[in-house]
Amino acid sequence: MDNQIFKPTDYKIVSVKSGKVFGDEGWTLDAPDEGGATLIRAQYAQKQLTVKDSSYGLYRFADWLPIRRMLKGSSAPVTYKSEKLAKHLGLSNLYITFNGYWPERGASMLTCSFKETEAYSVSARLAADCKKVLVVASAGNTARAFARVCSDNNIPLLLCVPEDNINALWFNRPINDCVKLFVTKSGSDYTDAINLSNTVCSIDGFFAEGGAKNIARRDGMGTTMLSAATTIGRIPDYYFQAVGSGTGAIAAWEDNLRLVADGRFGNTIAKLIVSQNAPFLPMYDAWKADSRALLPFDVDEARKAAGEITAKVLSNRKPPYSISGGLFDALKATNGDVVAVTNDEAAKAAQLFETTEGIDIHPAAAVATASLIKYVENKQLDTNATIMLNITGGGEKRFKTDNDIIYLKPNHVFDIDTPKEEVEKVLKEAFK
């Protein structure tokens, strides 16, 4: 049902911290006149979710997406009941929510990542006549998703990505010139790319996508929980996912609350079991110390740790962990946990998943799978519980076998802490 005329979703915005309700000014990212940092949430007029047919792609969940239009080319997460992996682990109700490319399962995300869910939601929140350039910082998968969506729908976009991660910017067809790529030089990390994007957004004509603060990003990612609950017929008892920022897990918790209010999927609050890739463990360390604040760390050591992990997308040094409504609150509210997973454990989990389920998965999804394996081995869950494993990316090997691949090349490489004047000069040249 691509490009059809669509009545914008009816919703208000509520501050998580104070509960104040207000209208969306179009791209509201923060609660006005709020004391202290807080996330905001969409409060939808449609209290019960009506799921549209699969031809709508991601927009089959449009009732709970803060969007003004529908864009072409989207796909929704696909949930199915595991047989072979479940049997191997001794689990009777393991459900896999697959985000990626797996035609036999009806999964057709051309970037092979659940970042498409946020890209199609965020971009559809934009007014069709927006004259400014959207700016997105990414460790890789988010950039690939936004590049594909904005290219296909002719939306001006500037990506900021660490140079060491640009091998993630692969595509099966050329990217429209409306998409530009700026990178921070080799040796930098995701946080350096975020810093570059902040500099760009201080320049007239450019605006930030907003990351975790953007309700469209979170509610796009929350469609994984909606896919699971509407397929299973109930809210799962456990939700497993690897996290870099934790935004996807926050989103799952928020849609869990909406599903409880819907009234048709039970009143379970799924335990969020999130995982990080050792040795990069800022949220794991804080959680184990029962600290809302991230623990102090040396920036150079953090960059080094980020460089050592297999799942590069899990390397956010400034996640929305401490903020009201952030991951700390989500974990507390759901009696959740954070698990540390080594590169070796993730590699073994990826191999097991491919052997049992029949499809390759991304390193981050392997980290999540490894965390589930650890929970089973340590007897930390009921083997009869309803478990959701969020496979946040997969089928890339299959996709690259089926398609010729090209890579997006950078428009410019920046040093860390490049002065604003130089950034502005390069911007004018790129977007003239």
Instruction: From the alpha carbons, calculate the radius of gyration and give it in angstroms.
Output: 20 Å
CATH topology of the domain at 78-110 and 216-400: Rossmann fold
Find the structural class using helix and strand composition: alpha/beta
Q: What is the strand content?
A: 15-25%
What is the CATH top level name of the domain at 78-110 and 216-400?
A: Alpha Beta
pLDDT average, as an integer? Answer: 95
Distance between the termini: 35 Å
CATH architecture of the domain at 78-110 and 216-400: 3-Layer(aba) Sandwich
Q: What is the 3D shape?
A: globular
The main β sheet shows up as: 6 strands, mixed
Spatial strand order of the main sheet: 4-5-16-13-14-15
How many individual helices? 14
Question: Helix share of residues?
Answer: 25-40%
Care to describe what's here?
The strands form 5 sheets. A 6-stranded mixed β-sheet has the order 4-5-16-13-14-15, sandwiched between helices. It has helices at residues 84-89, 115-125, 141-152, 190-201, 215-221, 223-232, 247-262, 282-288, 299-308, 327-334, 343-357, 363-377, 396-402, 420-430, and strands spanning 11-15, 21-22, 40-44, 78-81, 94-98, 101-102, 107-108, 133-137, 157-162, 170-171, 179-184, 206-208, 238-242, 271-277, 337-341, 387-391, 406-407, 412-414. It has 432 residues and is α/β, with parallel strands linked by helices. Helix 2 crosses helix 3 (141-152), helix 5 packs across helix 7 and helix 11 (343-357) crosses helix 12. A hairpin with a 5-residue loop joins strand 1 and strand 2.
